[in-house]
Amino acid sequence: MLRHKSGRRLLLPAEPYNNYCIGVNSTIECKVDKINCTGKVFLEPRHPVYIEDKIYDFTVHQNSVKDINLNETITVHDVFNNEVQVNWPSNKSKLPEIGTNIKLRVDRLTNGVPILNI
Questions:
Q1: Pick from 63, 62, 64, 56: which is nearest to 109 by CA?
Q2: What values do phi and psi take at 11, rounded to 5?
Q3: CA distance 38 to 9
């Protein structure tokens, strides 16, 4: 449970943020990720490594055709070993080989996992 400076209490699921070193009575910085139609507020704590709109190196672990429309994806792992799929644009060259390092931009973070883009 989080407590805002105003005294308002907010819930934050623990599991996605196990690697964040958040402890009892610690101060953390969060952003409002979204507010749903019922007014529920979803918070995203500051990631200990990634910053939105910055570019980082990732290693390709898998590449594949995603669906019937022949959309292609690559799969990388973030610093906490979360599997992240990235859509590969059809106007790009062929898919990078497994084991290749590739630079990807962190568009946003959701539940502790980066949403990546080329």
A1: 56
A2: -95, 145
A3: 17
Closest CA to 102 of 53, 59, 49: 59
Nearest to 111 by CA among 47, 41, 49: 47
Residue-wise pLDDT tens digits, 32-90: 888 999 988 888 999 999 999 999 999 999 988 666 566 789 999 999 999 999 988 87
Question: Which candidate, 60, 67, 65, places its Cα nearest to that of 96?
Answer: 60
Spacing of C-alpha 87 from chain mean position:
14
Separation of alpha carbons 76 and 82, rounded Å? 8
β-strand partners of 53: none
Domains of the chain plus CATH, in order, are 2-45 (no CATH), 55-117 (2.40.50)
What pTM does this model have? Answer: 0.84
